[in-house]
Design goal:
Murine Class I Major Histocompatibility Complex, H2-DB, Chain A, domain 1; 7-stranded mixed β-sheet; 3 helices; 16 strands; 5-stranded antiparallel β-sheet; 210 residues; Ig-like domain-containing protein; alpha+beta; Immunoglobulin-like
Amino acid sequence: MMKILIFIAFCVHLSAADTHTYQYFYTTVTSGINFPQFTIVGLLDGVEFVYYDSNIRKHIPKTEWMEKNEEPGFWKGQTQIAQDAEESFKVSVAKLMQRFNHTTVRPTASVFQKHSPPEVVCHATGFFPKTVMITWQKDGEDVHEDVDLGETLPNQDGSFQKRSILTVSAEDLQKHTYTCVIQHSSLEKEIVLPVSERRILNPGQRNTFL
């Protein structure tokens, strides 16, 4: 599961006879890790003086002087503000998760030969996210031998490409039905490309189809 961490810091500088720095750090994370989903840490001149998290659900003082100088009603009000902020941040994280989960781009796929057999190439490009499966089948059965699966490589636009090369004789191509199968999270149904419809890339000649 993808983990998202949002970290926002607010710094307020107050100048009087002396200069003090107030900093409030708001942190929210997705669930599933050993950390509160939402925290607020307040610092005065770098020293923590207030704290809130989604486990305790209370805004509490962290220094003795802060505890003595504020009435109970103050902490009740601060707790309500923190709880409202927590709900707002959770909604933002949920929207981000939904956006990431739906950021998928379908691959463009093709099967071709750079020259005559024995090598046939199945190429997928332009897909996102990175994970993709390219496999070969012979008469409906998976083929594992004589297969060279390349690395997944990045494209300039942030998408990815990958290729798989099948070594097969011209005789086998005539006798059997070979297909390239591509699976990706953007696809409702896998892409199946018959090798019989492959392109032949001949140097100096226009590309042809079988």
